[in-house]
Amino acid sequence: MMRRQGLVPIHAWAAARRSAATAAAAAPGRAGGSRRPPPPPPRILNVPTGPGGVLPDLAAAHPASPIVNVDLSPFYLAEAQAQFAASAAARSSSRAGGRVSFVRAAAEALPLPDASMDVVLSVFLLHELPPDVRARVFAEWARVLVPGGLLVVVDSVQAAEVAAGGLPFDPAGFAKAFHEPFYDTYQSTDFDALAAGCGLAPYDTRQAFLSKVMSWTKPAV
Predict the structure, then answer these.
(1) pTM over 0.85
(2) DSSP 8-class letter at 143
(3) What is the number of other CB atoms lying within 10 angstroms of the CB of residue 102?
(4) How far is residue 196's CA from residue 134's CA, in Å, rounded to a whole number?
(5) Which domains does the chain have, with CATH numbers?
(6) CB-neighbour burial class of residue 199 (10 A; exposed 0-12, middle 13-18, buried 19+)
(7) Is the separation of the CB atoms in 184 and 155 below 8 Å?
(8) Which residues of 162-190 are buried (b: 16+ CB within 10 A; e: fewer)?
(9) Strand 211-217 and strand 145-156: pairing?
(10) For the chain, what is the radius of gyration of the CA atoms?
(11) How far apart, in whole angstroms, are the C-alpha atoms of residue 162 and residue 171?
């Protein structure tokens, strides 16, 4: 359920994108009354893919979107492919095999062209990374996003949410029990500042029980 909360800002962003295109097409002064075609389905990067937990829901929510799934682990990629192949999203689309692809790569060195993705979705990655790699990952995400594109991150709540919400959660205990060596630096990172350093602007932040969803846009040129 917490993973799926990452689909909420993507839906809002895509709906706003369609509305803007419709408004532009209906604006007075369009030459010859010509109609502008609706925007194509957003190209989505899902990184890391992990064992595929969010992929079936992502593909079902965006049945025409090309989705590129990136993970460093070949074993996770194989499991994600199997999970997706067995999902209703794959069964309902005869073109699923062509629009959903799997690539082995590190998040900080994406084998993708500049401005090639409309949406980047990342679920439970940032708390696993050392601070210098987090910064490189954000820079890569910003690089592959088109102007106007959206970055969505789902990860753990941070110390501020734990303190403010009285959550039944002990960050230090979690880090020790689950051998998370970079979790303490994740807790204190200002991700809005990190995103701003890569040219990204805040879009939305919301809490989802013990996780939170942070999103940013790449300003249009």
Answers:
(1) yes
(2) H
(3) 20
(4) 13
(5) 3-14+39-157+192-216 (3.40.50.150)
(6) middle
(7) no
(8) beeeeeeeebeeebeeeeeebbeebbebe
(9) antiparallel
(10) 18
(11) 8
